[in-house]
Amino acid sequence: MEIEALRNTLVGEVVNPILLLLFAVGLLIFVWGLIEFLWGMSKGGSDDSRRNGKNHMLWGIVGMFIMVSAFAIVNVIKNTFPQPSTTCPSGLPPGPGGTCGSGV
After folding, report:
1. Which of 1, 19, 30, 62 has a CA positioned 20 to 30 A from the CA of residue 51?
2. Model pTM?
3. What is the 3-state secondary structure (H, E, C) of 33-68?
4. What string of pLDDT tens digits covers the 104 residues of the chain?
């Protein structure tokens, strides 16, 4: 049970907040690109400012997509390999070979 608790704590307290922070950075890059693009269009800016805005929006979306994918992969891995229970339904510890019951 200690390994499962460590895994849940690691994912819940370390990995998920880091992924959330990186997602927020991607969102900020996207918003900055949008502002840059719209500012370049409304003020008669050069093509460079619009191109930079488009690039920032594109890479912001790519970053957010990668963070959502990483979050999904972490949760799939976490839920695919559950730790075996350390107690049987009767409340007794498992027998030889990790099986519950007498096996007869």
Report:
1. 19
2. 0.70
3. HHHHHHHHHHCCCCHHHHHHHHHHHHHHHHHHHHHH
4. 577 778 788 888 888 999 999 999 999 999 999 999 998 888 777 788 889 999 999 999 999 999 999 999 988 888 787 665 556 666 666 666 666 665 54
